[in-house]
TrEMBL record:
This is LHPL6 protein. InterPro entries: LHFPL (IPR019372). The keyword Ribosomal protein does not apply. GO terms for cellular component: membrane. It holds the Pfam family L_HMGIC_fpl. It comes from the Eukaryota. Its main location: membrane. It comes from Heliornis fulica. It is a multi-pass membrane protein.
């Protein structure tokens, strides 16, 4: 198959894909913060949580749900800052993945990526990396 990328471009495409994949996996995994509550280990991230407390109104107690899952709704994310972090990190991961998949297609399709497209993709990738970093740092 013909490629529109140089050797450096092919390396950039594969490294971009690896970085985008690592960012997306990190975004979806609930192991950002680890701790314990009610003598159970708990963990959560911006998008998911594991072993979380829920108020049982019938018994008037707090029980631990020992499973992993997404928050029930966007409003169920603990704070406004955490919601912003989720959106910014998700946007960054999406941009990184878009550029990485486009670059990988450039490895197989001739004349898909020109010098101008490569520069624009690099700028989008830079913005995606910045968004991901801002989200990880909690803005």
């Amino acid at each position: 198959m013909a490629s529109s990328l140089t050797c450096t471009g092919v390396i950039w495409a594969f490294l971009s894909f690896l970085c985008a994949a690592a960012s997306c996996v990190g975004f979806f995994m609930p192991y950002w913060l680890l701790g314990s509550q009610l003598e159970k280990s708990v963990s959560f991230g911006t998008f998911r949580r594991c072993s979380y407390p829920v108020r049982d109104e019938s018994r008037q107690t707090t029980v631990m749900v020992e499973q992993c899952g997404r928050y029930a709704s966007f409003q169920a994310i603990p704070s406004a800052e955490w919601r912003i972090c989720t959106v910014v990190t998700g946007l960054g991961c999406g941009l990184l993945l878009l550029v990485a998949l486009t670059a990988l297609m450039g490895c197989c399709v001739s004349e898909l990526i020109s010098r101008t497209v490569g520069r624009v993709a690099g700028g989008i990738q830079f913005l995606g990396g910045k968004c991901s970093c801002w989200g990880w740092m909690g803005i």
